[in-house]
């Protein structure tokens, strides 16, 4: 019996009575899950506490959908009746929903039941939010599920982690949350290996976690029931798993705390609720929900359980900075450590201060006595000497000059500013820089004494020469204390020296000038020679970098362009061939094996090309996986083809990269000079076009450029341009070709066939645009559109009671190589409501050769879900029987080319029969396509073929005509049986 919990704060009748006196606003809280569920209770606490603490608290009503325990339609209907009965006459001003199901219910029914009130959601992740079609009058708080921070913290604690075991259930929220977690971990931490445990029973989970290696961790999102459907309360399950696990159990949500969770960057239900309530208060105050941005941040906390840290021997100091620790034992020192340290420090400083003070008193007394004696000696020396005594206090930068200085210059004491910046203004401008430099040299320790000669302007205006000496006094730390010395008037001495120097200078001036000039010329010459050598070396280095490819060492595109231009200019009558090479499917190798692997393959490819190069050839790396070879001075036309064939053959030998053996092929386009172009740009463009045609021809071959290729290339560009808007403009549609069981005539189902009707190009053949879509990767959205459209169509037929029929959908190799291909298929099945056993994916033989192991793994996984895998066009590829046994397929489709020749050519009949026998021996169903005549149908029936399709049964049918065709076909079968019953 389904029980719905109802716990409103006030009864609606009481509220209406209260509103008569004091109008209040009404808020309805809709919870997806039941009361007592930790996550829901935490959100509810955060919402109610915030609303009740506001200045004008609204009336709060709370309802629980209980979806986790009763996820069925009956529950939704009862909940609908409950809301309708309680709130049909009560005006609701705002709706707050927690988690997805309550939000979906509110969006669907608020206009009918709840006055179309604004919705504020909480606990919806990015996937749920992206699926909202109409965001009008809706806002809220995203449940920002990001495991990257938790993994970063785990790696901080244990850098050796390589495996992450994901614990979640198969509920809607469990799968949605896990999808986000897996996607973000693959993007942010591709080095980690992920193991999902949602397909295990509780006992299997216990056995697994009890033996995990030390390079692993457990990461739990949500868990309510195991794969068998057994409901398990979270606290019991988490505590049980954590108790037997050999590695820490990290969580994504804070309700795991105290239930075995080791810790992590945990989403807080209470913080989510508080933020949602804040948004609701803004809406209640009159702000439009459409103007309130969706909130993402501030709903998680970095927290660890001390008990779990102790169990796994992790110290608190080894946690990431800023981590919160719960359940930590009380410690007086830890709790009041700052206060204790401050008291100790203050007491220590006080003792030191008293000791220093006592010492300072004794020192000051001694210094005063010494200073008095020193002053006496200084006064006697200053009066007895003719020199000027000066002293600079380095703390105040104030000078003291003895009286003799003032007498020599004619100034009065106090007339000049005794700061250095004051009296230095009377130093001769020509001497100031020299004096300043010599003073600074001594103060910085470059000279042992200060010595300088300079002129000072007396009060009368004349300049006097002074010879100054001094020495700086430093303290123990090397700082300045005092700078003192003496000055001597040397004006007369300088006059004598000047006269003596004049004669000497006149005698030697000419000689010195000549010597200086000779030295200067020699020095300049040496610099010119040295600079010329450096410039030449630099130019050579930059030219090498500009004209070479850094990866392969081959000349690059710039080098090719210049050399090709030079060859054309010098060889107007010459002949040459330009080979444009591209490694087939190199992008897939890069995507699946990694760019480092791809770079090593490119280096080996360049070495192989050089190893098979004729003397007259030049090799270049054009960029990416493209190489260009210029073959000069071609004597015979057949040389062009011979060398192209040799290039193709050289790449049939596999490459060995470490433990991996890689098979690749190349597509080669050839432009010949001067036939296909007389300029470097024209030859390169035409060789590129020819290479593209080689890829269209099936890859692993070469094509010579022809004049009509440019037209085909331009046409392809036009098709690609219009194809990019085909889905958005609703230009694509599906036709459905029936398939029938041959032995009973019953309708098996249909194959979905894409068609394109362009307003500009008209009807475009799939043979034309599918290849173009694969080359430009538009096949990914187109293929997903086809799969979703076909599943919707078939699910609609099933809901109308027709069938059950099956649907076949063709899949491109581009889709299969996507990392999330299998997830996309299963997601579309869930969204459309189609049972997986009624879907069949058609794959060509060549697809498996692109990346056999990766594709086989994905298809094997889809096959386990009941999805059929058909090998299309069988017999036209290169599958051996031993290879065929390894493919995860359920159906063989005989290619139309084997059916067309029946019964005209006897050679195809036994071959078609052999294919049917092979398929049956391997336990596979066999389908023949392209059946157009009764003779072909009779032969296939004789060979016991299982299913057929083709124009003899029906042409592809537009979607709106399928139902009428089914009725007509069933009536024809009934009419065919009626004569047989009458004859009996």
Automatic annotation (TrEMBL):
Coiled-coil annotated spans: 497-531
Pfam families with a match to the protein in the record? ABC_sub_bind (PF04392), EAL (PF00563), GGDEF (PF00990), PAS_3 (PF08447)
Task: Please give the superkingdom of this protein's source.
Answer: Bacteria
Keywords assigned by UniProt, alphabetized: Coiled coil, Membrane, Transmembrane, Transmembrane helix
- Does the record's keyword annotation contain Cell cycle? no
Residue ranges constituting the GGDEF domain according to the UniProt record: 574-707
| SUPFAM superfamilies, sorted | EAL domain-like, Nucleotide cyclase, PYP-like sensor domain (PAS domain)
Q: Which residues form the PAC domain?
A: 450-502
SMART domains from the entry?
EAL, GGDEF, PAC
Every EAL domain range: 716-970
- Any stretches that span the bilayer, and where are they? 339-361
| NCBIfam families named in the record | GGDEF (TIGR00254), sensory_box (TIGR00229)
Instruction: Tell me the protein's name.
Output: Diguanylate cyclase (GGDEF)-like protein/PAS domain S-box-containing protein
């Amino acid at each position: 019996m389904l029980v719905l919990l109802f716990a409103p704060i006030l009864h609606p009748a009481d509220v209406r009575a209260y509103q008569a006196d004091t109008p209040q606003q009404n808020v309805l809280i809709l919870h997806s899950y039941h009361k007592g569920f930790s996550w829901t209770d935490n959100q509810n606490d955060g919402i109610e506490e915030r609303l009740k603490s506001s200045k004008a608290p609204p009336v709060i009503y709370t309802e629980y959908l209980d979806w986790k325990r009763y996820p069925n339609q009956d529950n939704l209907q009862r909940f609908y009746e409950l809301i309708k009965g309680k709130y049909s006459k009560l005006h609701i001003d705002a709706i707050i929903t927690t988690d997805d199901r309550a939000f979906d219910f509110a969006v669907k029914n608020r206009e009918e039941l709840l006055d179309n009130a604004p919705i504020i959601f909480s606990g919806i992740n990015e996937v749920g939010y992206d699926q909202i079609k109409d965001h009008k009058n809706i806002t809220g708080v995203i449940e920002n599920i990001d495991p990257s921070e938790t993994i970063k913290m785990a790696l901080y604690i244990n850098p050796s982690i390589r495996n992450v075991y994901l614990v979640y259930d198969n509920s809607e929220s469990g799968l949605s949350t896990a999808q986000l977690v897996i996607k973000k971990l693959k993007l942010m931490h591709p080095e980690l290996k992920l193991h999902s445990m949602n397909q295990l029973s509780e006992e299997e989970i216990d056995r697994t976690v009890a033996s995990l290696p030390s390079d692993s961790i457990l990461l739990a999102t949500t868990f309510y029931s195991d794969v068998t459907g057994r409901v398990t309360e979270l606290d019991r399950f988490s505590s049980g798993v954590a108790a037997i696990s050999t590695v820490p159990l990290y969580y994504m949500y804070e309700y795991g705390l105290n239930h075995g969770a080791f810790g992590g960057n945990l989403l807080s239900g209470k913080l989510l609720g508080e933020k949602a309530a804040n948004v609701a208060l803004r809406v209640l105050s009159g702000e439009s929900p459409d103007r309130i941005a969706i909130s993402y941040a501030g709903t998680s906390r970095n927290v660890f359980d001390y008990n779990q840290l102790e169990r796994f021997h992790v110290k608190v100091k080894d946690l990431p900075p800023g981590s919160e620790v719960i359940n930590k034992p009380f410690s007086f020192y830890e709790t009041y450590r700052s206060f204790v340290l401050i008291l100790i420090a203050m007491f220590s400083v006080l003792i030191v201060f008293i000791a220093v003070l006592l010492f300072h008193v004794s020192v000051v007394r001694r210094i005063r006595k010494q200073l008095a004696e020193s002053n006496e000696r200084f006064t006697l020396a200053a009066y007895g000497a003719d020199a000027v005594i000066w002293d600079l206090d380095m703390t105040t930068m104030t000078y003291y000059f003895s009286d003799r200085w003032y007498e020599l210059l004619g100034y009065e004491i106090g007339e000049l500013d005794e700061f250095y910046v004051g009296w230095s203004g009377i130093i001769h401008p020509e001497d100031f820089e020299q004096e300043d430099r010599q003073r600074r040299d001594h103060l910085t320790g470059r000279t042992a004494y200060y010595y300088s000669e300079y002129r000072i302007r007396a009060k009368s205006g004349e300049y006097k020469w002074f010879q100054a000496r001094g020495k700086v006094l430093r303290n123990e730390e090397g700082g300045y204390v005092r700078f003192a010395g003496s000055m001597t008037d040397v004006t007369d001495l300088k006059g004598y020296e000047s006269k003596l120097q004049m004669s000497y200078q006149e005698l030697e001036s000419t000689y010195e000038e000549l010597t200086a000039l000779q030295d200067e010329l020699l020095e300049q010459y040496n610099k010119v020679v040295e600079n010329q050598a450096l410039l030449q070396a630099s130019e050579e280095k930059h030219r090498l970098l500009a004209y070479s490819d850094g990866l392969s060492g081959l000349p690059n595109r710039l080098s090719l362009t210049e050399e090709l231009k030079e060859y054309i200019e010098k060889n107007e009558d010459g002949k040459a061939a330009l080979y444009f090479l591209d490694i087939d499917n190199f992008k897939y190798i890069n995507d699946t094996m990694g760019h480092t692997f791809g770079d090593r393959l490119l280096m080996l490819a360049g070495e192989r090309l050089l190893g098979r190069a004729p003397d007259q050839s030049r090799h270049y790396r054009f960029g990416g996986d493209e190489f260009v070879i210029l073959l000069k001075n071609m004597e015979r036309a057949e040389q062009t083809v011979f060398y192209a064939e040799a290039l193709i053959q050289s790449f049939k030998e596999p490459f060995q990269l470490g433990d991996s053996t890689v098979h690749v092929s190349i597509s080669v386009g050839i432009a010949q000079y001067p036939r296909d172009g007389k300029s470097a740009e024209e030859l390169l463009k035409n060789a590129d076009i020819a290479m593209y045609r080689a890829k269209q021809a099936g890859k692993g071959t070469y094509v010579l450029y022809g004049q009509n290729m440019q037209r085909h290339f331009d046409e392809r560009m036009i098709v690609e341009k219009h194809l990019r808007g085909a889905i958005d403009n609703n230009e694509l549609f599906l036709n459905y070709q029936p398939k029938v069981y041959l032995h009973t005539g019953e309708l098996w189902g249909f194959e979905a066939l894409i068609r394109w009707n362009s307003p500009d190009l008209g009807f475009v053949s799939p043979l034309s645009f599918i290849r173009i879509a694969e080359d430009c990767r538009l096949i990914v959205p187109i293929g997903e559109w086809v799969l979703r459209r076909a599943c919707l169509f078939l699910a609609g037929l099933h809901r109308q009671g027709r069938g059950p029929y099956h649907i076949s959908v063709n899949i491109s190799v581009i889709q299969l190589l996507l990392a999330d291909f299998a997830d996309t298929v299963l997601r579309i099945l869930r969204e459309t409501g189609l049972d997986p056993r009624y879907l069949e994916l058609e794959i060509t033989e060549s697809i498996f050769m692109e990346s056999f192991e990766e594709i086989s793994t994905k298809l094997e996984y889809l096959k386990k879900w009941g999805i059929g895998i058909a090998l299309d066009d069988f017999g036209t590829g290169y599958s051996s029987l031993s290879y065929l046994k390894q493919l995860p397929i359920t159906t063989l489709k005989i290619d139309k080319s084997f059916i067309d020749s029946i019964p005209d050519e006897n050679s195809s009949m036994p071959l078609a029969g052999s294919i049917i026998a092979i398929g049956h021996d391997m336990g596979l169903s066999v389908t023949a396509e392209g059946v157009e005549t009764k003779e072909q149908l009779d032969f296939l029936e004789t060979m016991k073929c299982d299913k057929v399709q083709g124009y003899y049964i029906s042409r592809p049918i537009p979607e709106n005509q399928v139902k009428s065709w089914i009725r007509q076909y069933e009536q024809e079968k009934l009419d065919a049986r009626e004569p047989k019953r009458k004859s009996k």
